[in-house]
Amino acid sequence: MQILLVAPLLIPLCTAALTAILWSRPDLQRPLGLAGAWLLLGSAVALLSAAWEHGPLVGQMGGWAAPYGITLVIDLFSAIMLVITGLMAVAVAIYAMGPGAVERDKAGFQPLFHSLILGVAGAFSTGDIFNLYVWFEVMLIASFGLLVLDRTREQIDGGLRYVALNLVGTLFFLMAVGLLYGLTGTLNLADIARVAPDIENQGALAAVGVLLLIAFGAKAAVFPIFNWLPAAYHTASMPVAAIFAALLTKVGVYAIIRVFTLIFAHDAAFFGPIVGVIAMATMVTGVLGAASHYDVRRILSFHIISQIGYMLVGVALMTPLAIAGSVLYVVHHIIVKANLFLIAGAMRQEGGSFALRRLGGLWAAKPILGLLFLVPALSLAGLPPLSGFWGKFAVIRAGLEAEAYVLAGVALAVGLLTLYSMIKIWNEAFWKMKPEAAKSIPWTRRERVATYAPILALAALTLTIGLWTEPFAALSLAAAEELLDRQGYIQAVLGSVQTAGLPGGAE
Amino acid sequence: MMPSLILRTMAPLVFALSLPVSFFILIQGHNNPGGGFVGGLVAAAGVIFYALGRGRDAATDLLRVPPATLCGVGILLAVASGVPGLLGAGFLTHDWWAPAYGLGTALIFDTGVYLTVVGTASAIFLALIRS
Q1: CB B127 within 8 A of CB B53
Q2: A283-309 mean pLDDT
Q3: CB distance B74 to B115 below 8 Å
């Protein structure tokens, strides 16, 4: 059990180390990186099945008992996120063997990529808030390197903005952790959750909650602190943009869901409406930003922001259905959004550009790419029978049940606008006549296979979730119930630990 | 511009001196201030001084392997030091062979940190200076 628990951390760590050792042999790094990604996926699936059977899995690092040492906790939600992380790692590792692989690997793509995966996996596994901060840092440092991989002026410009704005978010996180420690005397999430409802100064605790909301919100790119995302993502090379779009903001969403269901659940009446307003504003501003742009990458970047709003509905409403909707939405969104970025890369190869004005005629030239685009695009907009429909359905139904009619209405309207900008890409890139200047970029058969294989697999997965929703919905609901069962989490982590005598202990 | 004769002459000496000092700091970190991180920084400072005196290419030759490789080996050592604990009390639980001398799996961990810091600091610096 111990080995399984640390496997999602050790596998990417060792892969990053081994690829770094082979720094001067990029040709050997590539198969090694792919093997690491597959192993991660395998271990995450094993963890998910273990967490499904036995409930939350808990491990104390270095043998230090909770709440003093660092605890790893994998409950269903964590395990689901780890599986999807492994899946994305595999998809992007294959895709990264496509065009530009040699230059990327010479610049150090493989070690950085696996360090990023390590940070993400760590954030999903940890049960300690300061450790969560550390994993955020690991992830951010790796992402800085990945963002400026090609060393162009455009990338460094985007990278600087990304660094500056993310550091502000990080600073808020650190302040909040310090204050939280001052209030509760512990950094273990379960222990904080145990102590939090009983501390006297609830006002200060709520202030810490707001600080954490700002910190995680900055990572998740919610309104009004999303500016770093569209400033940076469109400059990154395509595999990097795809993994960023898939995972980085979702780690912020994960942290929001984790912390606000666990620590601040007793104060839901205060935080619910705040998160609700933020969720609506995020949905609307993101989708309007997407509607105003004509570069495929920029449109997709703004759609990430818009979709983050849906994922926050769970925290806004705090009902089992709403949180299950959020979980399902995160899973669906990661698959779909990564796939759209992968497809944007393929569109650039086939059509020669990312700019909609210079694209055209792709439907006549590459009908298969058109079909592959339609699956995630329509899923993003929420059309049945694709995965996005069920995500939106759960979120909106939860909104109606909780009588949050405005929230549900906004969610519906934003879906319509999402459809508009997907149709915009369709009309311009696929349907329009081919412009004179448009030329496809030549590529080898190998590169083509590496590009299309993950796109095809992710599209198939989107269809699977859409048509065979039952198990995914059941899993999301179980994860949501586990998230709302705070006592279960606390019991699993602290167990029979002597709690009397700890500061603020509820004897 | 060529560095001065004094700098060029001193560079290998300072580097040669930095290594034993860094090992000393690494070992004494068991019970006193010091450890892999600080020791690694001292060794990296020696490498950097060498690069300032003799140029980037000479420093790269001195290291023999790319700095990233040092990093990777260091991380693997640190991971390896935690593996015995994995089979027992918990990952990274450390064993002592000769506690009086600070010998145990924790020293392997610290050596890993040392190598990682040397690699990272050298990599950053060697990428920044002109050859």
Answers
A1: no
A2: 90
A3: yes
Q: Find chain B residues with C-beta within 8 A of A59's C-beta.
A: 90-91
Residue A502 has pLDDT above 70, yes or no: no
Are the beta carbons of A18 and B72 separated by less than 8 Å?
yes
Would strands A71-74 and A57-60 be described as parallel, antiparallel, or unpaired?
antiparallel
Domain range enclosing B96: 5-128
Q: What pLDDT, on the 0 to 100 scale, is given for residue A500?
A: 40
Inter-chain CB proximity A21 and B85 less than 8 Å: no
Total domains, chain B: 1
- pLDDT-derived band at A499, boundaries 50, 70, 90: very low
Task: Say what the pLDDT of residue A506 is.
Answer: 40
Q: With an 8 Å Cβ cutoff, are A3 and B86 in contact?
A: yes
Compute the C-alpha angle B127/B130/B131, nearest 5°.
100
Using an 8 Å CB-CB cutoff, list chain B residues near A10.
Answer: 79
Partner B contacted by A61 (CB < 8 A): yes
Instruction: Name residues whose C-beta falls within 8 Å of residue A443's C-beta, 6 or more positions apart in sequence.
Output: A98, A99, A349, A451
Contact with chain A for residue B68, Cβ under 8 A: yes
Letter for the amino acid at A400?
L
Residue B44 one-letter amino acid: A
Task: With beta carbons less than 8 A apart as the criterion, state whether B27 and B19 touch.
Answer: no
Provide the H-helix boundaries in A435-505: 445-467, 469-484, 486-494
- Whether B130 shows a pLDDT value over 70: the answer reads no
Q: Tell me what pLDDT residue A361 has.
A: 81
- Is ipTM beyond 0.85? yes
Domain ranges of chain A: 2-500
Query: Which residues, including other chains, have CB under 8 Å from residue A313's CB and lie 6 or more apart?
Result: A276, A279, A322, A325, A326, A395, A398, A399, A407, A411
**Residues B30/B96, Cβ–Cβ less than 8 Å:** no
> In sequence order, what are the residues at sequence separation of 6 or more whose Cβ sits closer than 8 angstroms to the Cβ of residue A479?
A75, A76, A77, A80, A323, A324, A327
Cβ of B75 within 8 Å of Cβ of A23? The answer is: no
Q: What is the pLDDT of residues B41-98, one digit of tens each?
A: 999 999 999 998 888 888 889 888 889 899 999 999 999 988 888 877 778 888 777 7
User: How many angstroms separate the CA atoms of B96 and B113, rounded?
Assistant: 18
Determine the Cα–Cα distance for residues A68 and A463; give it in Å rounded to an integer.
Answer: 45
CA atoms lying within 13 Å on the CB side of residue B79: 19
